C-alpha cells in the first residue's frame, strides 16, 4: 500500500518537474495531466491545476511579448524608411536640399519620438510601475482644465468643443493627474478624428455610486464590428489615415488601463463610419 501511495504522489510531482524544465527552456505550451494517477488526490489535482494556470499565463505573456515586438517593428519601419529614403536622395543628389525635404524628415523624426514616448508610457502602465494617488476631486473642474489645455488645438483645426456639465459639482475618487491624462487622451483622440467644422461634446453626470463621463464627436466614426478592438494597442480603424494623422495607436490602450486602475470602466459606441463616436467611462463617486 505504501508503495502504491508513493507512486501516486511521486509520478505527478515528477511530471510537474519535467514540465517546469520544459517551460524554463521556453516551451510555454507544456501542461501536466489532471487525470490518471492523481484522481485519488485532491491536493495534487489542485496543484496540477495551479501549475497549468501558471503555464497558460506565461504562454499568454510570451505571445503578447512577441506581438508587441512585431507591432513595434512595423510601426518603426514606416518613418525610418521615409527618413532613410530622403537622406539617400539628398546624398545622391536626387533630392534638392529644400525646406520641404527637411520638413518631411523632421515630421517623421517627431513621429518616432512620440512613438517611443508612448511605448515607454504603455510599458510602465502595463507593468504597474506607477503610483496612484486616489483622492476626492471635482470632476467638473478637472474637465474644464483639460478643455482649456486643448482649446488652442481645437481652434487651430476649427473644431468646436462643448462642455455641458449636468451637475454643478461631481466629485469622484481618482488620481488627479491620471484623470487629466485620460481626459486629454480622449479629447485629443476626438479632435484627431473630427474634420474641420465638426464638434466635440463633453459631459459628466453622477449617481450615488459613480460618475459617467462622455466625450462625443461628429468625426469619422467606427464600424460596429471594430468597437471591441478599439482599445487594443496599435489598433487603428483606418490604418493609413490614422497613421497620417499622427496617432500611435497606443493612447486608447493607456487610457483603458488607467481608467480600470482607478476602479472604473470604459467603452466606445459608434453608429458607423462618418457618424461620429462616443467614448464613455465611469469612476467611483467620492464618499
Structural commentary:
This protein is of the alpha+beta class and 287 residues long. Helix content is 54%, strand content 14%. It has a 5-stranded mixed beta sheet with strand order 2-4-5-7-6. Strands 1-3 form a two-stranded antiparallel ribbon. A hairpin with a 7-residue loop joins strand 6 and strand 7. Helix 1 packs parallel to helix 2. The longest helix is centred in the first third of the chain and has 51 residues. The radius of gyration is 25 Å and the shape is flat. The N and C termini lie far apart (62 Å). About 2% of the residues have low confidence.
What topology emerges from the helices and strands here?
Layout: H1 2-24, H2 42-92, H3 99-126, E1 135-138, H4 139-157, E2 160-163, E3 171-174, H5 176-192, E4 199-206, E5 210-217, H6 239-244, H7 251-261, E6 266-269, E7 277-284
Parallel strand pairs: 2-4
Antiparallel strand pairs: 1-3, 4-5, 5-7, 6-7
Helix pairs in contact: 1-2, 2-3, 3-7, 4-5, 5-7
Which structural traits does this protein have?
7 helices; alpha+beta; two-stranded antiparallel sheet; five-stranded mixed β-sheet; 287 residues; 14% strand; 7 strands
Unreliable spans: 240-246
Give the end-to-end Cα distance, rounded to a whole number of Å. 62 Å
* Fraction in helix: 40-55%
- Profile the largest sheet: 5 strands, mixed
Short description:
With 287 residues, the protein is α+β, with helices and mostly antiparallel strands. It has seven helices and seven strands; from the N terminus they run H-H-H-E-H-E-E-H-E-E-H-H-E-E.
Amino acid at each position: 500500500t505504501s508503495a502504491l501511495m508513493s507512486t501516486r504522489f511521486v509520478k505527478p510531482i515528477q511530471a510537474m518537474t519535467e514540465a517546469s524544465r520544459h517551460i524554463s527552456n521556453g516551451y510555454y505550451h507544456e501542461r501536466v495531466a489532471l487525470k490518471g494517477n492523481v484522481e485519488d488526490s485532491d491536493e495534487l489535482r489542485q496543484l496540477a491545476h495551479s501549475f497549468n494556470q501558471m503555464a497558460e499565463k506565461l504562454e499568454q505573456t510570451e505571445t503578447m511579448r512577441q506581438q508587441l515586438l512585431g507591432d513595434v517593428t512595423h510601426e518603426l519601419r514606416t518613418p525610418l524608411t521615409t527618413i532613410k529614403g530622403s537622406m539617400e536622395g539628398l546624398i545622391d543628389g536626387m533630392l534638392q536640399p529644400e525646406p520641404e525635404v527637411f520638413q518631411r524628415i523632421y515630421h517623421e523624426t517627431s513621429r518616432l519620438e512620440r512613438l517611443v514616448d508612448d511605448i515607454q508610457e504603455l510599458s510602465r502602465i502595463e507593468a504597474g510601475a506607477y503610483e496612484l494617488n486616489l483622492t476626492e476631486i471635482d470632476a467638473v473642474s478637472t474637465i474644464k482644465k483639460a478643455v482649456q489645455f486643448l482649446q488652442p488645438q481645437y481652434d487651430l483645426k476649427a473644431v468646436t468643443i462643448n462642455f455641458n456639465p449636468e451637475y454643478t459639482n461631481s466629485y469622484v475618487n481618482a488620481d488627479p493627474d491620471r484623470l487629466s491624462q485620460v481626459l486629454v487622451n480622449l479629447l485629443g483622440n476626438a479632435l484627431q478624428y473630427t474634420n474641420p467644422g465638426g464638434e466635440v461634446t463633453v459631459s459628466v453626470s453622477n449617481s450615488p455610486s459613480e460618475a459617467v463621463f462622455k466625450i462625443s464627436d461628429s468625426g469619422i466614426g467606427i464600424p460596429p464590428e471594430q468597437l471591441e478592438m478599439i482599445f487594443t494597442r496599435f489598433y487603428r480603424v483606418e490604418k493609413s489615415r490614422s497613421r497620417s494623422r499622427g496617432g500611435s495607436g497606443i493612447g486608447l490602450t493607456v487610457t483603458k488601463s488607467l481608467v480600470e486602475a482607478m476602479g472604473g470602466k470604459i467603452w466606445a459606441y459608434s453608429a458607423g463610419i462618418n457618424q461620429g463616436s462616443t467614448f464613455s467611462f465611469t469612476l467611483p463617486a467620492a464618499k
